């Protein structure tokens, strides 16, 4: 037993030395191939994947050689590739993926190019002639975020606040924004969606997975489409399919078509002095690797914001040099900050509401957005508003 004990100890020393040598070799290899931050201006993450439905909580590796300022976005356009693959949903095979760029960023010189390409995802459904079907340039383009299964909501909007005959003297266009459904019923839903598109010609869709964490991509698709096919629009509004929008009040009293169209104009429900949520249990979680600052620039709630037509191309081009964040309204605010454009507070802070406003004819006559509607409620509120809109009332908002 004495010999065996001495023999095991001697063997353990040799094994420990060998393991130590391996650790040193691994460390040297890691140092050689580890991504670097050159003078704080470039950050590399894991390869891009926008197919997931939640942020990958195994956070991207980040090697930061110096502290990044809270104004990193405005002063330092970063070359960024973000991995937001879902833990619950496997990434698609390479055959499923369209010709996707591995980065959302380009050189700073490219920021000022006039030509806009269709972007990293192929269009499945598009309406390239939507704006050119009339000599009159659209006064307002409504970009409405929706999902394939929400056909009833789309039909309600088509017949109420999104109806293109709401303002007969001005051209109004509505477009529903969708990605691709990745569920088992996705093939059937896609066929139904294409049939719906052939009837109404108001759907645009690109080949990315339609999930909550891809709402930023969906909004960028809408901006890309307007920049490509409708750059002459005076104003654009981005909103959602569960919203009620008083388009008449929006056009007549806020945008005032008799006035010259505004420039660098962006407004909605103001979100000021908001901090990133670092709790990874939250729906709105943003890890420091995606946004290292302690405060977001002022942005407008994604439930409904309005901006001048000249900002469409500017915001889209800015997005090419702004690191991706899955919170769509925050991301647009980051693009505005990069452009040096500050959102304009609306004339009344209760014009844009990201909550459900209880109905009264006076409230709904003077507001622009109210949140949280099913299709039946959209119909009901719209009919009530139309029947009372000519009645005199005191502004109650």
What does this molecule look like?
It is a single chain. The chain is of the alpha/beta class. It is built from ten helices and nine strands. The strands form two sheets. It has a seven-stranded mixed sheet with strand order 1-4-3-2-5-8-7, with helices on both faces. It has a two-stranded antiparallel ribbon with strand order 6-9. Strand 3 (172-180), helix 4 and strand 4 form a beta-alpha-beta unit. Helix 5 crosses helix 7 (310-319). The longest helix has 32 residues, at 2-33. It is globular. Residues 1-11 and 29-113 have low confidence and may be disordered.
- How many strand segments? 9
Helical coverage, percent range: 25-40%
Please mark out the parts with pLDDT under 50 across 5 or more consecutive residues, or reply none.
1-11, 29-113
Assess the beta-strand content as a share of residues. 5-15%
Secondary-structure content class: alpha/beta
Q: In DSSP terms, counting alpha (H) and pi (I) runs of 4 or more, how many helices?
A: 10
Global outline: globular
Through-space gap between termini: 91 Å
Strand order of the largest sheet: 1-4-3-2-5-8-7
Secondary-structure element order, N to C:
HHEEHEHEHEEHEEHHHEH
Which whole number gives the mean pLDDT?
Answer: 78
- Note the main sheet: 7 strands, mixed
Radius of gyration: 25 Å
What descriptors fit this protein?
10 helices, 397 residues, seven-stranded mixed beta sheet, disordered N terminus, two-stranded antiparallel ribbon, alpha/beta, 9 strands
Short description:
The protein has helices spanning about 1-35, 70-75, 150-160, 185-200, 215-230, 245-255, 310-320, 330-340, 360-365, 375-390, and strands at about 125, 140-145, 170-180, 205-210, 235-240, 245, 265-270, 300-310, 370. By secondary structure, it is an alpha/beta fold.
